[in-house]
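Cont'd.
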Amino acid sequence: MSALIQVKNLSKSYWREKFEIPVLNNISLNIDAGEFLGLMGPSGSGKTTLLNMIAGIDKPSDGEVVVDGNVISGMSESQLAAWRANNVGFVFQFYNLIPVLNAFGNVELPLLLTKLSKAERQQQVETALRIVGLSDRIDHYPKQLSGGQQQRVAIARAIVTDPVILVADEPTGDLDKASAEEILALMERLNKEFEKTIVMVTHDPRAAESASIVHHLDKGDLVKEVVQ
Amino acid sequence: MKLLNLIFRNILRHKLRTFLTILGIAIAVLAFGVLRTVVTAWHSGVDAAAADRLITRHAVSFIFPLDYAYKDQIARIPGVETVSWANWFGGVYIDKQKFFARMGVDAETYFDVYDEFQLTPEELKNFKQQRNSCVVGQDLADTYGFKIGEPIVLEGDIYPGQWEFIVRGIYQKKNKSTDGTLMVFHWDYLNENMAQNSPNRASDVGWYIVKIDDPSKAGDISERIDQQFSNSSASTKTETEVAFNQGFLAGFSAMFTAMDVMSFLIVGIIMLVLGNTMIMAARERTREYAVFKALGFTGSHLTKIIMGESLLTSLIGGLLGLGLMVLAVGAFEATLPKGWFPVFQLEPSTIILSILAVIIIGVAAAIFPIQRALSTRITEGFRFVG
Ligand SMILES: Nc1ncnc2c1ncn2[C@@H]1O[C@H](COP(=O)(O)OP(=O)(O)OP(=O)(O)O)[C@@H](O)[C@H]1O
Ligand SMILES: [Mg+2]
């Protein structure tokens, strides 16, 4: 059986004026369903860029990304938008919650793109918030929540549509140690209990311990693979 | 629509900013509406004039009189149906503040020529029969409480002395734009008095009103009339009533044109006010829009969210402005002296124009922010630092 996510000979470069800046060089990588993959490496090594390509919010200059048999690197913008809505949950370093919506409203957002009724949406939002342990904060606004709590709301938003893949870009990067531990425990649980395939970028060696496999990037090259 | 909640919350995000923007739009719509009302009121004064009526007056100025004998000569010109005439009376009713037009007119023909002033056959008969009777417009009667059978006393200035007239008719307006503020009485009555007290002013006519059978011949007939008197002691100037009214208001014309232009400039200014607010909002939300897109929201979703916010803001401002406009126009109408404009009221066309302007503004102000939100790539949006 082939891997859920296949990255094949992927290269990416940016153009600044007339100069081509290579960011990723001919990367190949397979991620199996149910894996918890960590991406580490120095700042500027291309971690975020690679993650974005896997999540379908950026496109390679060369090579392809295949997820569950779909060549997502070849999709149009609108196909990609629909694909992301159905298959990917996003967790960001700075939470990226919408400040004018409360926890419920933020978690509900991805469901607005579905055909679910109001009652069904409500039920699913409540379930997601229960999984992250924030049932009692359902009507709190982001600014009324701690960093760790905001990140948990963001995770609830990422899982509310029950996507196949979760991508997380330094989800603990802005949190204190205790909150970071909570988030990591939650991610592990999502991986084990809910069988989410997770790709997580991190600087933090402690965070990387949660992952089952860690890939190291340096200057756009995959340099090391550690199986834990 | 599921996005409505989000649109409302975005509007309420910066309450003071939204409030100021809405207030700005409301005040601009108010100014737009009041200016348009003044301009349309002026135009309706011109429009109210009939194209089949010519006014013949002294070539130098209409304050100089013409001779009564001209009447028959004008009547003989082909194409002329009826000849009527009038004199400006002036005078004071109680005090100078209470101004309205008072004229001595030919009782036999005046209401035939001005068929937009409508009297019952009974009223017309009574008016014609009694030499010191008068007719007043419905609006005038409403303002001063004039009633049929009651006297109106005027203090003459152009025609010195105390004059008493009995109201024998109150005319109704045929159209909304018809002037309902006139007072007319028998020219004969005025003339008799002159013949007795200052014989040199007897048989003076202020101007002739000439009803013609075909408006398209107005130019020819006017020329024939003026030719007729070109060698007499008082030569004449004849023009259509429309031209006469325009000439009467010519001094104001430039001002009204300026108002017209200004009312549309105001629309442009509000567009900038709202446009600025929307652009600031779009910039601040660059990262949020990237989040929406990453979650799978499409360009059409973002368009609805941004357009909805812009339109809703401009519509709220517009409605507030319309409300203020109704009050302001009402207040103006109450304080403007009667007779300045035949009609001064909020026209449906003004309301429709305001709503249209507000919609155009809402749409236009959203275009740039939408364009920006759609063209910003997701990865750029995440890297954006305001
Ligand atoms: N839109 C862009 N335009 C130009 N250069 C870019 C763009 N995005 C990323 N880069 C460059 O690509 C390189 C890799 O960036 P990337 O964000 O993937 O690094 P990273 O490994 O995530 O770093 P960090 O740990 O600091 O987040 C950097 O040199 C960055 O400057
Ligand atoms: Mg990064």
